[in-house]
UniProtKB/TrEMBL annotation:
Name of this chain's protein: 2',5'-phosphodiesterase 12
Family: Belongs to the CCR4/nocturin family.
InterPro entries: CCR4/nocturin_mRNA_transcr, Endo/exonu/phosph_ase_sf, Endo/exonuclease/phosphatase, PDE12-like_N
Lineage of origin: Eukaryota, Metazoa, Chordata, Craniata, Vertebrata
Gene it is expressed from: Pde12
Pfam families found in the cross-reference section: Exo_endo_phos, PDE12-like_N
Amino acid sequence: MWRWLRSALQSLRGSPAAPPYGGGGRPPAAMERAVVRCVPSEPKLSLRFVLPDGSARHMQRDQAEPLGRVLARIATNAAKGHGKAGKKSKKARAEGVAEGEAAVPAVRLFSRDGAAVAEEVPNAAAWQDGAVLHIGDARYRVERNPPALTELRLPRSLLAGFPVCPKVSAEFAAPQHCLFRWFREQRPACGGDAAGEAWVETAAAERVFTPSNALVGLRLKLRCTPGDGEQRYGPALEVESSGPVEAGPGACTFDARHLYTKKVCGHGSVRAVSYNILADTYAQTEFSRTVLYPYCAPYALEIDYRQNLLKKELAGYSADLICLQEVDKSVFVDSLAPALDAFGLEGLFRIKEKQHEGLATFYRRDKFSLLSQHDIAFSEALLSEPLHKELCEQLAKYPLVQEKVLQRSSVLQVSVLQSTTDPSRKLCVANTHLYWHPKGGNIRLIQIAVAMSHIKHVACDLYPRIPVIFCGDFNSTPSSGTYSFISSGGIAEDHEDWLSNGEEERCSMSLSHPFKLLSACGEPAYTNYVGGFHGCLDYIFIDRNALEVEQVIPLPSHEEITTHQALPSVSHPSDHIALICDLKWK
């Protein structure tokens, strides 16, 4: 709110003249602005204006208060302002006003049609957009809830050839209706300082700007004017980059994949992406730098660098659905959500309760609307939800396994989406990241059993017979019990994964689910490639009864993956590889 107040004050001091208005007497040729912020959920409204003597006024008043009290207060403030000048006008002396005092000016409020607003009208109803406030001979046009920027921020790292996506937060405005102007720093002339303007405007006027190689070494500046889509604009804000544009890494592992995804799919198809993007909380540890990824240049593990690559990679897939794992909360809020919003995608986030990272699901706004969310934490759902009662009772027979399951913070994100062009078409989109330990196959089986029961509740009970798309990092190879359970619909009591961590943690149960699920991208040789391991752990499972695969976007070649030995690298932002496929309804 305070950023809004500063913007309002800025607009009052440097505002353009308003058009004349015929309310309550002959109007002046131009009017000052009286900016009102009135939000129904808040008890008070704020009123900002500049008195004729040049002093700025900011008032906070109850929304239910009668208008007359505010007008009386404004009159008192105006009189004090005149009195402080310490000089009597000829008119004041003629009327016998004492030295240091001033006559209280008449203060009235007139509606847009010129009628005086009654003093008993509550503030919330009185201060309407387009009304005119009279303070003596001065006139003020009321602007109620004008567009205002509350935050404007550029990324800390800028790379040539990679999109710069500002974080734009606004009140009474939307980023898609804002005006953007990009500037570059003036390059110093040879042998001396640059002459003339320090900034030169570029030809770019879009929300996202991709600097060319010619801008390497120069800083950027953005000027944003907030708009609400109804031809109302607020005061502009400017922000300068903290550092210059730097050279990009050259060819990236995803460049060739973008050749298949230049355009968004038609309305009869859905492009889905599943991607573990490597949380910064894991990439920035000493263990990661020295043991897990010693082959990766330290700067390429920095979150600012990796975010440049991630945003370009994800934007270039032109996806309708994106399911991400290992998403830092700050990365979602400050980087991915603003960036993908600029490319038409709405984001949902679910954090793991004990950690700083979680899951994110993005969907294309012009293709889907969100009907409902049904996220759960596996451990909490297992204990509290009746539909898992039988599984919980079976698990209680194996205390060691039960303890491990309940200690895990793994979550399941479930979103029900509806087609914007065909309301009969709905999707249940699930996203998860299962327990990571190589010897945790039994834990993953319990987690996936909870997940399938919950998805069944959503896709069969709440929304009968809607198709399921289940994405994630399942930490399970195609030979695992988890993969077998998902794809076949059941698992035997004697499957070897029940014994994955030795005899003392053996548990035996028979599990089943009703879905016919297919791995849309098949079983790649690997989706995770690090120095000490490579294997297929990530999948996009689809309801084979309702959906079919149109195309699978090829994974990067082995040569591309191993150019810098393994992942992540200067040309690839994660230790996993994104899965991408185009689906269509049968």
